[in-house]
Amino acid sequence: MTRAEIQRQASARWLLKPGVRAAQNEKARVRMARKRASTRTERRHDSDDQHESEHLAGSDESRGVERTSVERTTIEDVRIAISEWQFNWGPEYTWEKQFNDRLRAQQERNSTFRSVDTFFGICEDHVQSGREILSDLRKISVGYCRNGRVIKDKFIQIYDMLTIVLSEVKFFEVKLDEYAPSIPASRLSSVRYYERA
């Protein structure tokens, strides 16, 4: 028996386990939705804008340019959505440096503010997607269950996911308020706001 046949049999046994096939199908469905969204985005923007978006998000996909509305009803669905949503910039204490490095790279890229605006647009879309995930977490937390262990497990999982999403959403909201305020005319001082030298 060849290694390929052994691997094929092991994969078939794994897919027969309860819930595995459904989880894999859901992952594939989300990947295809992202791929379709990415294809639509590529048609709308030229290749330079697409490369710029990929560089900013730090991944192979164009994150945040166009969101797909997906109804997530289980903890597994939300966990998958979170792992695909995150920018994966490492631990939280490095986010500030990552953000500043990416912003600086966009400022140096060209003399216009177009690349900087694209960067902040991606950040804003990322925040909105995070808010949608938080809404999904709120929806799945409602429900009745008699088993105390299941309730405790569900609570711990939701709390863990809530912490992950909320910290990243708040980080980007603060950065957007700092560098791209929604009401710039109301500021009293320019100390906290980005101004090109």
Supply the number of helical segments: 7
| Major sheet summary line | none
| Topology, number of strands | 0
- C-alpha-based Rg, rounded: 20 Å
Strand-and-helix sequence, N→C?
HHHHHHH
Cα end-to-end separation: 68 Å
Give the overall form. globular
How would you describe this structure to a colleague?
With 197 residues, the chain is mainly alpha-helical. It has one domain (47-186). The protein has seven helices and no strands. Helix 3 (47-57) packs across helix 6 (114-141) and helix 4 packs parallel to helix 7 (148-179). It is globular, with a radius of gyration of 20 Å. Residues 45-53 and 59-68 have low confidence and may be disordered.
Descriptive key words:
197 residues, mainly alpha, 7 helices
List the helices and strands and how they pair.
Layout (H helix, E strand, L loop, with lengths): L2 H13 L4 H25 L2 H11 L17 H11 L9 H15 L4 H28 L6 H32 L18
Helix pairs in contact: 2-4, 3-6, 4-6, 4-7, 6-7
What is this structure, in a nutshell?
The chain is an all-alpha fold and 197 residues long. 69% of the residues lie in helices and 0% in strands.
